[in-house]
Write a structure and sequence with these properties.
The protein is mainly alpha-helical. The chain has helices at residues 21-28, 39-74, 83-127, 132-147, 151-180, 184-234. It has 6 helices and no strands. Helix 1 (21-28) packs antiparallel against helix 3 and helix 4 packs antiparallel against helix 5 (151-180).
Length: 235
């Protein structure tokens, strides 16, 4: 609804800080005024990319070496045009294995890391605190999800493996946060409070200016009426 002509502009009070866990969760996937996602969400994407590279190297490099060695041993009786042709053929065999087995490991590591980080980050945001229990629960959930197709025994094994992975990983991250002086949740809370106080101060300043302009306009409109009244009295 548009303001009537001559009316002072209306400034909305800044939105209050998120109070519930669901509000903090929604904030993780919401862009700010600079069209940027929160640091926690960006870290999830960075971790997924790093995990993909590490998984590809972990699965691809041994496969490359093994396939190249197997090709050399199996092709001793074959005749090549020259030494370069033999070396290229061995490299092509190794490269095929590098791509094949690297991809197999890469997507699994990416999926495990992404699910683990999403769950642990979501728990930290919902509870508004970073704790070892968040990482333990995230590891147990991720491990169970990856092993649930093997039945109850696989599910239990996945929970144990995921918890055993999540606790030391969480401990390492907590140690890094300790060196930094604050966790991501504490940093996020501090930045939210500072931004809210800044916006609140700007809103109050604009509101005061609007009130002053309104009073000035009313005074300016009142002066001609007072002068007219004085002229009528003089007659």
């Amino acid at each position: 609804m548009a303001d009537p002509p001559g009316a002072p502009p209306v400034f909305c009070r800044p939105a209050p800080l998120p109070q519930t866990g669901w509000e903090r969760l929604r904030e993780l996937w919401r862009r700010d005024e600079q069209q940027q996602y929160p640091e926690e969400t960006v870290n999830i994407a960075k971790a997924a990319f790093t995990a993909g590279v590490v998984g590809w190297l972990y699965g691809g490099l041994p496969a490359f070496v093994s396939a190249r060695k197997a090709f050399i041993e199996s092709s001793r009786g074959e005749i090549f045009q020259n030494r370069a042709d033999a070396v290229q053929s061995a490299h092509r065999a190794g490269l095929r294995s590098f791509i094949r087995y690297g991809w197999r490991w890469s997507w699994r590591v990416v999926a495990f890391t992404t699910i683990f980080n999403v769950v642990s980050t979501g728990l930290a945001a919902y509870r508004d605190k970073t704790a070892i229990s968040n990482f333990a629960a995230a590891g147990a959930f991720t491990g169970a999800l990856f092993r649930m197709h093997l039945g109850l025994q696989g599910l239990a094994g996945g929970i144990v493996f995921g918890t055993a992975f999540g606790v030391p990983a969480g401990g390492l991250l907590m140690a890094m946060y300790g060196l930094a002086g604050e966790t991501l949740q504490e940093k996020r809370r501090r930045e939210r409070k500072e931004l809210y106080e800044q916006r609140l101060a700007e809103w109050q300043s604009k509101l005061n200016i609007t009130e002053i302009l309104g009073q000035t306009e009313n005074n300016a409109q009142g002066r001609p009426e007072m002068e007219r009244a004085r002229e009528l009295k003089s007659y």
